[in-house]
Amino acid sequence: QKKYPEAVKILEKNIIGNFILEDYRLYFLATALKEMGKMYLENMKYGVATQKFKKSIHNYFEVNKFYPESPFHSSLNGDIANVERYLGDAYFMATNYKRAWQAYRRALMRKFQGDFNHRLEVRLALANTYREAGNLQEAYDIYAYLLSHDFGDPRVEKEINEFILQYGNAIPDFINSLKKSIEDINKEGSEGN
């Protein structure tokens, strides 16, 4: 497929006598490992994908810790947050919901410029993880938060509607509250037009 495995082999070797480029080597290695992890994730090899994502995060942290003057420094929070989201996805697909929850939470803790869409997607993934793990109260709390902060995005309403369909009979009080919130938002939106 792509040549990320070959790039990883080359980049895993230290560049002898050229320490000025070490931050570049580590950054590109982290990026290649992330891309390899995504390939393994697509091929449903979740264990290998998690290993690649963890190594990628480690290398991004190395750049952050040892090379504060690196030109990559300003993008590291975003890079790490994105890999942590992929790590959460790999754990989720392997049905390791506790680890998925932890990875998604770490991804949410990192702030970076232009992170609105990332934060929304991670919150939706986190809510889905809670749903699958049977923690409906936590899923509800995230959906309620999204309704109050990120309204207007069709993904939020779609996820909430799926939640209502799946669990409407099991937790009627939560569901009625979510339905009312959706109706209120829709009413506010139509009054504004």
Task: Describe the fold and architecture.
The chain is mainly alpha-helical and 193 residues long. It contains nine helices and no strands. It has helices at residues 4-11, 22-42, 46-66, 76-93, 97-109, 116-133, 136-149, 154-167, 172-192. Helix 4 (76-93) runs antiparallel to helix 5 and helix 6 (116-133) runs antiparallel to helix 7 (136-149). The longest helix is centred in the N-terminal third of the chain and has 21 residues, at 22-42. The protein is elongated. The mean pLDDT is 84.
> What's the total helix number?
9
- Measure the end-to-end span: 49 Å
Q: Helical amount among residues, as a percent range?
A: over 70%
Mean pLDDT over the residues: 84
Percentage of residues in strands: under 5%
Which sheet architecture does the biggest sheet show?
none
Global outline: elongated
State Rg: 20 Å
List the helices and strands and how they pair.
Elements: H1 4-11, H2 22-42, H3 46-66, H4 76-93, H5 97-109, H6 116-133, H7 136-149, H8 154-167, H9 172-192
Helix pairs in contact: 1-2, 2-3, 2-4, 3-4, 4-5, 4-6, 5-6, 6-7, 7-8, 7-9, 8-9
